[in-house]
Design a protein that fits this description.
Number of strands: 5
Distance between the termini: 39 Å
Strand content: 5-15%
Oligomer: single chain
Strand order of the largest sheet: 1-2-3
Order of helices and strands: EHEHHEHHHHHEHEHHHHH
Amino acid sequence: MAKKGRVFSGARPTGRQHLGNYLGAIKNYVALQQDYDCIYGIVDLHALTTMETTKDLKNNTLEMALDWLAAGIDPQQSIVMIQSHVLELANLHTILSMVAPLGKLTDLPTFKEKIRDQPHNINYGLVGYPVLMAADILLYKSDAVPVGVDQAPHIEFARELARSFNYRYGAKVLIEPEMKVTQIPKVLGIDGERKMSKSLNNHIEIAATPEETTKRVMMMVTDPNRKLRSDPGNPDICNVFTMHKIFSSPEEVEMVNVECRRAGIGCVDCKRLLAKNMNKYFEPFRERRAEMAKRPDDIFDILEDGSNRARVIAEQTMAEVRDAIGMP
RNA sequence: AGGCCAGUAGCUCAAUUGGCAGAGCGCCUGUCUCCAAAACAGGAGGUUGUGGGUUCAAUUCCUGCCUGGCCUGCCA
């Protein structure tokens, strides 16, 4: 069947995925498979720019791959691969680094953030992060890249690199990728104020047990003005309600919306309903995942197969790149 | 390569002349609340970067090494 083109997206191996990862990326990855030839990379090289210890790298890769595959990313239909297993990437990265303007790299907001976050580890790779990202996208001749708005400058940078390369070497080898801005719901953590993230420990893992999920939901911060059971609440500022809108039926959402405001239901009732719906939502996923987790070798085989398929595309691109440059 | 400075709890930092390594924030538990938050009470968390040395005793003094920052050079 004819698809609209090729999509590449990568995620750093952060281990077991949480609701933010799922709603922000994975769900979208699964949906895109219908219309595009997708390549999903576990970008371990990018992870090295911030990781100071790599002892969990392999396990984090496995855990994330399990979440991806069990969630519906289909390795028959898409390519699921490990970034570092395609050596051509390093080659293209080096070549692109000669075209990449340093001033632009150091001006990017993400780089400035990292300077603030890890002033003791400002490495060369950190500056070149967007170059490596561009290399990944361009290596596979991606037509589109699904990203959140925060990644927009990086995609724009990749487009400019492709243009610069093509102009400098008088070729049309590299394809400027379209930015496929996905409307990512801003998923807040259980603290109700900051973005859900593992490092803030305000996350809920999608592969968590029903008990663990319920426990974490009960810990969620609600409308602080609703102190007593008899007080009316305001769902508009309550993250529990936001989650209801994702995991509960329209009828239940309406019920919560009405009953919370007139103290018809309490937060405990509200949270129990949410936890129940979340657990129901992820039940089939968790069953599939548990099955897959019994055979970790199979997962690594899938990743290896994906990397091999990706390499075929990469080799073709690199032949064209070398030819365009006029390398002997 | 040389010179100077720094490294202490998850984070930011204290610790008198060399004398039991502490605080704030964060984290966990409890009280209180429908839950959560807030408040209060309690708790965990450390080979003081690391190996030697001096000393009755080293976070503190000496020294090798590691890491980071600033400066001066050398090579490509």
